[in-house]
Amino acid sequence: MVLQGKTALITGGSSGIGLATAAMLRDGGARVAIAGRSQDKLDRAVGELGGDVVAICADVSSLDQLERMRTELQNAFGSLDILFANAGMALGTPLATADEETYHTLMNANVKSVFFTVQAVLPLMREGGSIILNTSWLNQVGTPGRAILSASKAAVRSFARSMSAELIDRKIRVNAVSPGSIETPIHRGKNQSEEEFRAYAERVGAQVPIGRMGRPEEVSAAVLFLASDASSYMLGAEIVVDGGRSEL
Ligand SMILES: NC(=O)c1ccc[n+]([C@@H]2O[C@H](COP(=O)([O-])OP(=O)(O)OC[C@H]3O[C@@H](n4cnc5c(N)ncnc54)[C@H](OP(=O)(O)O)[C@@H]3O)[C@@H](O)[C@H]2O)c1
Q1: Nearest-atom index, ligand 1, CA of 219
Q2: With 90 as the cut, is the pLDDT of residue 202 above it?
Q3: Distance 81 CA to ligand 1 centre (A)
Q4: What is the DSSP letter of 36?
Q5: pLDDT exceeds 90 at position 106
Q6: What fold is seen in the domain 7-241?
Q7: Residue 169 Cα, ligand 1 centroid: separation in angstroms?
Q8: Which helix (H) or strand (E) holds 24?
Q9: Is the CB of 215 under 6 A from ligand 1?
Q10: Any ligand 1 atom below 6 A from CB of 236
Q11: Rounded distance, CA 200 to CA 90, Å?
Q12: Could you count the other beta carbons within 10 Å of the beta carbon of residue 248?
């Protein structure tokens, strides 16, 4: 198993891409911790993963909660080899109507949280460690109504380069993964029926060259590669997993 003997933390590991990645890294031999704000979601995720996973209830945009997360992680594992900084959110931000509160909500959730998550766990990271940041296909294309979301993800893409340069002496690699439209709860509207969601997924899928939305596991496979020594020559790089949406 490629991750035998390694420890991993996945923020936002209770749902979607994070949950699929928790399963894949665990199946790859790693001891896995997942973090998220909702204890209910964490409990359900641990059940789905079949136990044997450490769950940490923490809001990664709060520095106090990040400190507590590090303590819980230290108590559970002692040290850390892999961080997947995945927690994040999406909101529409039309230029004409987006307000200041939405700006801060998105930037705190997607940018501040990633910077301070890395800072918080660094004291635990071992030489040879791998940090993977979750950005988005939106970091490199312009689409209407998503300026703040896209800028937040472009900042995370930039972090992968700067942080990798800063951590190279400690032999810690930082890389990014950029998902396209992936079928996860982030796309589900409140009170949306399954039928309505399927129609939405068809519409979005039709805009992607490959003809469908992606599956969370298709992103997790890239994370597994970046987490493992198979990617040992990759630093500050990005793997785009978007069905060709930003390239074709
Ligand atoms: N799905 C896509 O199409 C897509 C495309 C590009 C990029 N992404 C990125 O992929 C990442 C994962 O998204 P997803 O699609 O898997 O969404 P998801 O199913 O909604 O999962 C989001 C996860 O993040 C956690 N989370 C959110 N804010 C948090 C916070 N402040 N502190 C701790 N945990 C937090 C959520 O748990 P709680 O709510 O309990 O905190 C949940 O576990 C995000 O960064 C997203 O921007 C997704």
Answers
A1: 10
A2: yes
A3: 22
A4: E
A5: yes
A6: Rossmann fold (3.40.50)
A7: 31
A8: helix 16-27
A9: no
A10: no
A11: 16
A12: 9
Q: How far apart are the first and last CA of the chain?
A: 35
Atom of ligand 1 nearest to the CA of 61: 31
Mean pLDDT estimate for the chain: 98
Residue 25 has pLDDT above 90, yes or no: yes
Confirm if 17 and 216 have CB atoms less than 8 A apart: yes
Q: How confident is the model at residue 51 (pLDDT cuts 50, 70, 90)?
A: confident
The whole-angstrom separation of Cα 44 and Cα 40 is 6
The domain spans of the chain are 7-241
Angle at 143 between CA 138 and CA 146, to 5 degrees: 75
Instruction: Give helix 147-167 / helix 100-107 axis angle, nearest 10°.
Output: 30
In the predicted structure, residue 110 carries a pLDDT above the cut 90: yes
The pLDDT tens digits of the residues spanning 157-170 come to: 999 999 999 999 99
CB of 117 closer than 6 angstroms to any ligand 1 atom? no
Q: Cα dist. 246→153, 172, 215 in Å?
A: 14, 29, 17
Q: How far is CA 182 from the centre of its chain?
A: 12
DSSP 37-74: S-HHHHHHHHHHHTS--EEEE--TT-HHHHHHHHHHHH
What is the distance in A from the centroid of ligand 1 to the CA of 127? 28
Instruction: Identify the residue whose C-alpha is closest to ligand 1 atom 43.
Output: 12
- Ligand 1 atom with the smallest distance to the CA of 216 is 16
